[in-house]
Amino acid sequence: MTGTATATVEQLLCLGDDALVAAQRLAQWCSRAPEMEEDVALANIALDQLGAARLLLSYAGDLEGAGRDEDALAFLRDDRELRNCLLVELPDPDFAHTIAKLLFLAAYQRLHYERLAAGPDERLASIAAKTVKESAYHLDHAMLWTLRLGDGTAESHRRMQAAVDEVWPYTHELFEDDADLRGAWLSIVEPVLAEATLDRPADGWAPTGGRSGQHTEHLSYLLAEMQVLHRAHPGARW
């Protein structure tokens, strides 16, 4: 591959792996969400993320030219080979953590896909144009829940603030290669936190490593669950 193609494959893997792991985390809420409508909503958001992951990983496989399709990239890579940000692999000890992660991720994805939709790569621009519309819905959904929890009861406020505080450091990794995008991201996120009566955490500790394959232990457990069927029955067809 040329240097340009290699860079594009890396970009596709980062975006595709973000969406793939986010989908798996969101799918874990099936039958466990706080209300029936939210159960359906999170499942639909998970499907949107999975759809984006399929398109992005398929393109990465085609461009790579090593004979790996979307299934091989999703199910046959170990944690060190994945390029997702650490944010999406974090566990969800409660619903507030899911909403905080979705708010931060969706704001980033919407901005990133908007840029790619206007880019010179026609296939990637087409994928981004479809996905940016879904990201806008994900962001709106997360914003509404952030307001509802942050400006709700004392207990919901406490949990939402705790989730924001815990997740915030992991957002810095999203902008390591594009610091300018963080300003636009903050212009979306900060007003939501303020309206929800939540404090915007101070910047400090900024864990990193996901983009280079250095993940938390949580990803290994997630992949074990996600990949077990494909690895146990390679090449199986329904």
Which key features would you list for this structure?
238 residues; mainly alpha; Ferritin; 9 helices; globular
List the helices and strands and how they pair.
Layout: H1 3-27, H2 36-64, H3 70-75, H4 86-89, H5 95-117, H6 122-150, H7 154-167, H8 179-195, H9 217-232
Q: Would you write up a description of this structure?
A:
The chain is mostly helical and 238 residues long. It has a single domain (3-232), classed as Ferritin, core subunit, four-helix bundle (Ferritin, Up-down Bundle). The protein is 68% helix and 0% strand. The protein has 9 helices and no strands. α2 (36-64) runs antiparallel to α6 (122-150) and α5 crosses α7 (154-167). The protein starts with a helix and ends in a 6-residue tail after the last helix. The mean pLDDT is 96.
What is the total domain count?
1
Residue fraction in strands: under 5%
Q: State the helix count.
A: 9
Number of strands: 0
Mean model confidence by pLDDT: 96
Shape: globular
Residue share in helix: 55-70%
The CATH architecture assignment turns out to be Up-down Bundle
Q: Name the CATH class.
A: Mainly Alpha
Q: What is the CATH topology classification name?
A: Ferritin
Structural class: mainly alpha
Q: What is the CATH superfamily classification?
A: Ferritin, core subunit, four-helix bundle
Radius of gyration: 18 Å
Unreliably modeled segments: none
What string, H for helix and E for strand, traces the elements in order?
HHHHHHHHH
